[in-house]
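Supplementary material to the annual report.
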Amino acid sequence: MKRHYFGTVPVITLAALLTACASTPPESPALNETKAAYDAAVDDPEIARNGLSHLRNANAALDRAEALRAEGGKEEAMGHQIYLASRHLELAREQSLRAELEAELQEAERRRDDLRIRIGDRRAQEAEIQARMLREQMDRLEAEQTDRGMVMTLDAVLFDIDSADLKPGGERTVRKLSDFMREYPDYRVRVEGYTDSTGEASYNQELSLRRAQSVQNQLLEDGISSDRVEVQGFGEEYPKATNTTSAGRQENRRVEIVISDRDGNIGSR
Amino acid sequence: MFSRIFPLLVTGALVTGCATDPGPKPDDQLAATEAALLSATNAGGEDTEPSMIIGAREKLNTAENLIADERYEEARRLLEQAEVDARLAEARADTQKVREELGDVRTSIDSLRRNLENQN
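Predicted assembly:
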């Protein structure tokens, strides 16, 4: 690609021409500079590889410029060819620069995709760990999956008879719930009281609400924020078992704690 | 006698139409230059190399006037220059796009990396 071969034929012809004319055409500094720039571009392997067609165009324009210089008196036409040659050199350099940037871009994209995969894997792992921990917590609470979500049931034996006060065993169970709620601050609960059908419905409704409230109070004492705990007294409604046997009535006297989903939404009856 | 005529013939063959002959009407070059300018504008060359595009347009306008005056050779030169100007502006615009894309990807790499470090 060096300019050795360039214009051998015109040079010989012009040599003949020169001897005939017997006048030496002046050197052109602009032409010499552009030739030097061409040589430098050809010596750069990146430019030679990526800007080949523009280098060829530059070479052809330099040949024409050289011929015009040798001819003499064609300054304008020669200047034009030099202009074209230097533009083609710039184009060759630009293409080479772009090829370099494109290679860098490709490499950067590869690194980015790699990072995305690593983060994705890590997130999936973390999500799995979180899910397993949550399952373990729910197991500890002895919560059951229902239509309303996870529900934890406190038997009536955890309350004093006809009283809303929690027995120590009940307090221990509620403490497990407050531990869970402290660890998972996005979760909310609704505490629902239920009774059997013995006695006045209004009394039963009131008792069920007070039992639910005493669970709520302990949660608040344990530092759970009040907006995370709803209470409701259902009284005799929604029996779990028959009220005609004592075993059934025992089952119906209970407090259910409905645990929200991770966004704090609680399924209702 | 021969030694005087021969170089003139050779020169004539070498630089066709460069002398007093106005040469052929540069219709093809006009079309090529217009196409190059359009392509450069579409590629965003005006944003990357505004003065180069303006210069190329001026050369095109001048060339059209020269063609009207049947000064074809001068017109052709201006058109050829305007064409390479436009092509260079387009090439620079293309390079700029790659450069910007590379910047974006690097920014996202930085943020992904921070993300990954925060997870550790």
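Chain A touches chain B through 38 residues (CB under 8 Å).
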